[in-house]
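Lab notebook, page 48
Experiment: co-folding of the full assembly
Goal: obtain a model of how the components sit together before planning crosslinking
Operator: M.T.
Materials (sequences as entered):
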Amino acid sequence: MIRTRFTEMFGVQHPIAQGGMQWVGTAELVSAVANAGALGFMTALTQPTPEALSKEIQRCRDMTDKPFGVNLTILPSITPPPYAEYRQAIIESGIKIVETAGYKPQEHVDEFKKHGVKVIHKCTAVRHALSAERMGVDAISIDGFECAGHPGEDDIPGLILIPAAADKVKIPMLASGGFGDGRGLVAALALGAEGINMGTRFCATQEAPIHDGIKQAIVANDERATELLFRSYRNTARVAKNKIAMEAVSIEREGKPFEAIAHLVKGVRGREGLQNGDPEHGIWTAGMIQGLIHDVPTVKQLVDRLVAEAEKIIDDRLKSMIA
Amino acid sequence: MIRTRFTEMFGVQHPIAQGGMQWVGTAELVSAVANAGALGFMTALTQPTPEALSKEIQRCRDMTDKPFGVNLTILPSITPPPYAEYRQAIIESGIKIVETAGYKPQEHVDEFKKHGVKVIHKCTAVRHALSAERMGVDAISIDGFECAGHPGEDDIPGLILIPAAADKVKIPMLASGGFGDGRGLVAALALGAEGINMGTRFCATQEAPIHDGIKQAIVANDERATELLFRSYRNTARVAKNKIAMEAVSIEREGKPFEAIAHLVKGVRGREGLQNGDPEHGIWTAGMIQGLIHDVPTVKQLVDRLVAEAEKIIDDRLKSMIA
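Observation: model returned without errors.
Model output:
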């Protein structure tokens, strides 16, 4: 067992989180993560309505009696989803841990805190972590350049970003982006984090609601098999490298407007890429960690093995190096 | 004291190297690193002739009786420097440790090995590390995306690159790029490396032959204050962000040929950028680690403090987390 300020604060067994992943954070995966002693987050906007979210939370509760949370990601939009209603559904469902991500979460943080909900805010830069800390969140999930999805525009990897943030942020931090095994967990703890968040690694588990063809592609891909889309629009997304993603990158490099690639990349935010078994069919997100993913275990096998590996590194490898 | 396969193989006290840095790897810095118990490398091509290199090696020996090495970087060139003569000068000077970097070092590796010289090859990708291992080198220095100078074109940070390489490479590995304190050393050891190589961190020491104005700029800069030049020519170099570097990047983004920026960037490989005290005067290399550099200690202060911090992380922080 590895105990940190994170495990204490959130009342979970292991310093491991499965943060919000659109289309993936459903009751099946989140309950499996909770039952394995880690902290899983359902993804609010994966559910079509606030009512559907309430039902999904109840469905997750039917499968676990351990704590789990909900992710609420705030994206700027001309016709935004009803964030306040999703937030209300989360609070009324009795959820006590929320992961926020995205733009200007202050109003949501205030409401969650008022109702005794602990908030972890996910961000990709030291200055954003400090701003979230001032906003009153309980913990930070700091997301490095390696991550799947949105790494921000600074391109600072975890090796630098985690200690740089740890030097300034006082509340507990999870290290996110590029984590998938016990080596990474120990590295994160050494660098100043209190645990790790994993996305792509949890996608390649038996319980993830993703087609097995995609899970096998994650296993087959190496660390170089990702692409960065939307760089030129300053809304970078790391996705798995395939023919469509490469075509999108090359259209973007020609300096064409977003509309020119929109028809190619619609899969990025859709279920289709993940639920069609052909990894060439659509665009789907994946982090660099896929280079270190070699199997599709159950969530419990993954968590148990990861913690055991981390303990062994601390107890055997590192201790034996001290003369 | 932290003992690893690296300290054993090279007969040094600490698992820390100061690898080749053009214009910086002179007798002053390298002897200070050796006297601090780490492994310093002089940079062969910083000396104008093989004879000058022999003299500089002797000058370094006059300042330390501890082991040190020489870096030989092989760059493709129409009028290459006399590599074989530099190599001969290294061998005849009785140097027993060499760091190679760059293209097709087989001939040099063979000659060094024939003369009982141990070779560490520096590279930026798992496939290149495996190729160097097959070439017969004794150790690898694996250089991540965070590094100053040439990170390669794959953009894989140490958090991924080190364990990915450790899974395949059998000989000892140094982790390079993004290292500057005890936290990083423990992270590197946890990820599977046997020590760290530091460049930028050693530049901001009293003994580095660099103008104090540049050392103070490294201290002042944060982790975001670097730029990548020459991306479009597939010869990427990470340099400190200043007005000239930003101008070069913006000319490059317009798709102009190398000649259009050559007059701006001549400083990259010249002494001028480092030896003029104005950080805006020329282009000079720096890694992302500058975000974690807050002072200009002596080399010995740096090494002692780094090792003490690493020991404390292993003995106190990590051990206390195991329940």
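Interpretation: The longest helix of chain B spans residues 299-321.
Next step: discuss with group before ordering constructs.
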